Amino acid sequence: MDIRKELIKNLFYLKEIGLQAIPISEAIKKLLQQEVPLEEDSLFSLQNKVLRCVKCTLHRVRKGVVWGEGPTEPNGLMIISEYPDRDEDFYGKPFIGEVGNLLERMLAAINLKRESFFITHAVKCKTPGGRPPEQEEIEACKPHLLKQIKHLKPKLILALGFTPPKVLLDGKNLTLVRGKIFKLKEINIFFTYHPSFVLKNPGIKRAVWEDLQKFRKFYEEMFLAS
Hints:
46% helix; 5 strands; Uracil-DNA Glycosylase, subunit E; globular; alpha/beta
């Protein structure tokens, strides 16, 4: 682990969520002042770029960019959600509160854990009033997501909600692709409803359960097959 990079990343995150200053020792000051070149084509470099993004008008209403969280080893698991809600924007983390609890229950039902996934959003800034992102906003954020996927190299993606297929499948509607696996080059993507949509529409729970069982089968084929 590059301690300096991790320290800078955490300090930058604290700045994004509104912290103005923190006390640091002289040793940390010297570490931060070291001339260490930042690799242009790296996940860390991309993260710094995305956190400063002003490519669309959403930067005017956000508290901060929600980059994502989770393991970054290649050939792992990834969840791509829709866009941050108010709580996610405030805390700078995906899946907070009731929606996060439901996600964890959904994953537990197929013997998986949230911590096994790198979790991010298709659009990384909250929208005014929680409305769906507009096409201009989707297009502005699409390169960030595709580069994030490129660096993380997940083997299997669970895409939740109506926004991911608009980004990853050139505008396709979720109702046409849910419960199915698609390929983005060598990466497998599975689409289903977002937990927040399930909370508002409990009648789709059975359909989501069936989708999750299919996802578990794909997971076993890709990760557990001998």
